[in-house]
Design brief:
Elements (H helix, E strand, L loop, with lengths): L5 H20 L3 H17 L6 H17 L6 H36 L14 H16 L8 H9 L1 H4 L7 H9 L8 H35 L5 H32 L17 H7 L2 H12 L9 H19 L3 H22 L6 H20 L3 H13 L3 E3 L11 E3 L9 H16 L3 H6 L5 H16 L13
Length: 479
């Protein structure tokens, strides 16, 4: 079920909200939580009921392992159980997500012809696997409390964050499910939730899906691109990904607020970053937190030698790339970001300074170029985009006929990507939004339920709903 669908907006979400608080009003607290769990499982199974047993088994397995640590005294036994628990989670994730990738590489390396399994990727498996690995590690360290199963089940399955994050942490979620003050309707939270949901819906339906047309045509259909087209294609995906994923996160935050649950911040104006480290503090914040706490720091973090620190950064971000998908392009994307962080660390160690505008320009263009490898389906597609960006033919719009005498080719600039005059305007518009507007979190912190916020919510919501002319999945559903 998609957030940007009629059935979610007008059927599932309002019915779930009404029944949940009706049960609470009748003091049926356990039944209300049970209902919310079953609603979340229905939300998950609506996509493909075949994978419902997978999340149920995963949830029961990890809850049992996590609770067992409090009953075991010997550290060696606890460590064996932890390794076993993490291994089962990773094997499950690896089987569904990386089996064909592994087989393809074996075939290419040894010139054999092993058959692919062609497994469909279970929805949200990367997200709920990471959440529960974090739970196991913290349970092993004695940092978890005795959570009851209903609260744990809600932590795993709560539908606003289930499919594509944020990657929530048990410490910030389960206490909220146990808090009795969250068991009554909060009209300010309802107003804020609708406001943030409307912003996210607008981001996805109106902005991201518009950029998707040009990005898809450029990456997947066009055989060659002129220079301006190639840059527009790369920027279209850069903005599509941002507005798609941040839009999903806004809708998740808004949906959760209706139930008085506050999800963690996942985006904070990442394209305003002045260096790559700052970018990763602002982009997909919950993934960055997981990578730092459960991979980078256990590897030694920056507590070791400088060389080892650089290696730790590279390993962490290569794994981050692989987490996103079973492709060498994702691995290379992770390697690029790891190298960028190494270079930034070296630059910082020498205490070098840089003009802020130049720093932003370098950071943004690195991110934009690296997204090419993230989006491309194969190496040829990535090379096509990069070749067009730096070696493509320069064609300017016919409207600039005054430049004809300068031997500059004039013509229809966006013919290969089905772009129009508004294409360039959309790119400029996106730059203005991400660089000069407040982000959703800033609007949340200053939100007041006034007639003006109501008017803006209605305008954004109605315009977005009227724009729901097709089904469009969120990009991170693929990860």
């Amino acid at each position: 079920m998609l957030f940007n669908s009629y059935i979610y907006i007008f059927v599932f979400l309002p019915i779930t909200f009404i029944i949940y608080f009706y049960l609470i009003k009748k003091r049926l607290i356990i039944l209300s939580k049970t209902f919310l769990i079953f609603s979340s499982l229905f939300f998950y199974a609506y996509w493909n009921i075949m994978y419902l047993p997978l999340i149920l088994i995963s949830m029961l397995f990890n809850y049992s392992i996590g609770n067992s640590f409090s009953e075991i005294k010997k550290q060696r036994i606890k460590k064996i159980i932890l390794v076993f628990g993490i291994s089962i989670n990773l094997i499950l994730l690896g089987y569904f997500k990386y089996s064909d990738f592994f087989i393809e590489n074996i075939n290419n390396l040894f010139h054999v012809h092993l058959s692919l399994l062609n497994l469909a990727l279970p929805l949200a498996i990367s997200f709920f696997t990471f959440q529960q690995i974090a739970y196991l590690v913290d349970s092993y360290k004695g940092e978890t409390k005795e959570y009851n199963f209903l609260n744990y089940a809600l932590f795993v399955t709560f539908f606003p964050q289930l499919i594509a994050g944020p990657i929530v942490h048990h410490k910030e979620m389960m206490p909220q499910f146990a808090n009795i003050w969250n068991l009554s309707k909060n009209y300010k939270n309802i107003a804020l939730g609708i406001f943030i949901f409307s912003i996210g819906l607008f981001k996805k339906v109106v902005i991201a899906d518009t950029f998707a047309l040009w990005a898809n045509n450029g990456f997947d259909i066009a055989t060659h691109l002129n220079m301006i087209e190639a840059w527009v294609v790369s920027l279209s995906y850069t903005f599509e990904l941002y507005f798609d994923f941040s839009g999903y996160t806004d809708m998740a935050i808004g949906s959760a607020l209706l139930f008085n649950i506050k999800l963690p911040i996942n985006f904070f104006s990442p394209y305003k970053s002045l260096n790559i480290q700052d970018f990763w503090r602002r982009w997909h914040i919950t993934l960055g937190r997981f990578l730092k706490e459960y991979i980078y720091i256990p590897l030694g973090g920056n507590r070791t030698s400088k060389v080892r620190t650089y290696i730790n950064l590279l390993i962490t971000f290569i794994l981050a790339g692989l987490w996103h998908g079973a492709s060498w392009l994702f691995v290379f994307w992770g390697f690029l970001h790891g190298m960028a962080l190494v270079i930034h660390r070296i630059w910082h160690n020498f205490n070098f300074k840089m003009n802020k505008i130049l720093a932003w320009f370098i950071t943004f263009n690195f991110i934009n170029i690296s997204w090419v490898f993230f989006r491309a389906k194969d190496w040829d597609s990535a090379i096509k985009i990069l070749h067009g960006m730096f070696l493509g033919e320069l064609i300017l719009p016919e409207k600039l006929y005054v430049l004809h005498d300068f031997n500059i080719k004039l013509g229809y600039v966006f013919s290969d990507i089905q772009g129009k005059d508004k294409t360039f305007i959309f790119v400029i518009f996106a730059f203005i939004i991400v660089l000069f507007f407040k982000n959703s979190i800033e609007y949340m912190s200053s939100f007041k339920p006034t007639k003006w916020t109501l008017i803006w919510s209605v305008i954004l919501f109605v315009y977005s709903v009227l724009s729901l002319t097709k089904v469009s999945e969120f990009i991170y559903f693929n990860f």
